Amino acid sequence: MPLSMPFPTSYRERGQDRPFRLPPSFELPKPQRVAIVYTLQIIVTKSRNVPMIGKKLSREVCMSIHIRYRPRVRPSRPVPDCFSEVKQSPEDWMEDVWITKPSVDTGNEAFSARCHFFFPSVRVFTASEKIPFHLRLETSPLFLHSLVKLFVPQQNPSKIEEVLHVYILRQTTVNIHGTSFNHDQVLGRGQMMLQSSSTSKAVVSGSEEPVTWSWNGNLRCEAPVLSTGFTTGQISTTDYIVLSLLLPPGQLRPDLSLQRAIPIRLATEPWIDRS
Predict the structure, then answer these.
(1) pTM: predicted TM-score of the whole model, two decimal places
(2) Where are the alpha helices (DSSP H) in 116-208?
């Protein structure tokens, strides 16, 4: 039997003044299990005439069905294929400039690290498609060496093969009945290629000579993404492109000294040309 019914677009929570957009079905298995579950209850009434008693008898049958609610979200325009298209359509790209400012004294104030990150300006990306980007890092190997000693002292600076990482991270924040925690999941890691225009190989050493390193790369979600980000009164999920200096892909640090988190939105459906 065909059945069709509309879902509401928003709802209100007790004690909240503003409405929330209806969130998708969701489950977080750890560190504590949290879930958003939709159940459709169907009540069927069966009636029949009983001539012997001269009246109609009715009986109700209840059925409950779990529903996976996954609203479709699409980007508003396509993503450029590669960074080389920036000259033809500069409006399709945006630049984020990040200057590292460690919260404590590195003992080497003469140097800094300036990162220029170019990525598609649409900021809404289909989870299954690649996201092209371009990175330029201006610093000195000696400054990076001092950061390693300060923030990751257990690491041998000469053993660090990648000075900069780019990855997609989904952060879920939960605040229910006084219990509050964050859960960070790395969804995909960027593939980067050092450009020939770079002044040298990207290494951490004792050299004070300023260097400029440039990479072209692509990001893609490697983990399945079944829903877009959402916000309720107790649960929210937010997606980021994270730039991480020296630190491997992982959860966001509280001080963000060596990380830059750029909010984006992951879509579940590809862009469609409706022209």
Answers:
(1) 0.85
(2) 141-151
